[in-house]
Design goal:
Keywords: DNA-binding, Restriction system. This is Type I R/M system specificity subunit. InterPro entries: Restrct_endonuc_typeI_TRD, Restrct_endonuc_typeI_TRD_sf, Type-I_RS_S_subunit. The protein has 7 helices and 9 strands. With about 180 residues, the chain is of the alpha+beta class. It has one domain (about 5-180): DNA methylase specificity domains (Adenine-n6-DNA-methyltransferase TaqI, Chain A, domain 2), CATH 3.90.220.20. Strands 2-4-3-8-5 form a 5-stranded mixed sheet. Helix 4 packs across helix 7 (about 150-180). The longest helix has about 30 residues, at about 150-180. It is globular. The chain starts with 6 loop residues before the first strand and ends with a helix.
């Protein structure tokens, strides 16, 4: 995975705990940027949100997020992966997740690969047991995988994106029908 993803980083990669404490303030009331947590993805990107101000966002240069970036839970529910959506504010990563992205591979394909059963098993093998399961960035990078060509990745990624949209549409459909009856 270290060859697949040229970015594997987290919140604490931005500095020491002291420098993070001194430079990054978090807010529960709306502010400049979202601090994306795993619970935001689990809540289907509907909030409640955690925010940081412009100075905090600027300090967190190594963990800025963009649409179609992938985040991974590395503590607790290790191996849960989420695709970052387009939101109405700048975004940065909050603690307890890892940002993984590739400048040379298709993000939609990589996301589907990461949530596949074989990859979940591979991640599980690198997980460290304890009070809370965890995986470190180095062990994640050591997971072996093979990738199709970029052209094939793009076709597969687009197919799954369309399939996900169709599934979401069908999941909403019964709610609309039940309102009519």
């Amino acid at each position: 995975m270290g060859e697949v993803f040229d970015t594997v980083t987290d919140y604490v990669a931005n500095g020491s705990f002291k420098s993070l404490r001194d430079n990054v303030k978090s807010y529960t009331k709306e502010n400049y940027a979202y601090m994306i947590r795993l619970q935001d993805a689990s809540n289907n990107w509907k909030g409640p949100w955690l925010y940081t101000d412009e100075a905090g966002y600027s300090f967190l240069t190594k963990s800025k997020l963009h649409p179609n970036d992938i985040i991974m839970s590395n503590v607790g529910s290790v191996g849960k992966f989420f695709l970052i959506p387009e939101l109405d504010k700048p975004m940065t990563l909050a603690p307890n997740a890892v940002l993984i992205k590739s400048s040379k591979n298709n993000a939609l394909f990589l996301y589907q690969m990461m949530i596949s059963t074989p990859m979940q098993v591979a991640v599980g093998r690198k997980t460290t047991p304890g009070v809370q399961l965890k995986i470190n960035k180095t062990d994640f990078k050591r997971i072996q995988t093979n990738l199709p060509s970029l052209n094939e990745q793009e076709k597969i990624g687009e197919f799954f994106k369309q399939l996900d949209s169709l599934i979401a549409l069908h999941q909403r459909k019964p709610k609309c029908i039940s309102k009519l009856t």
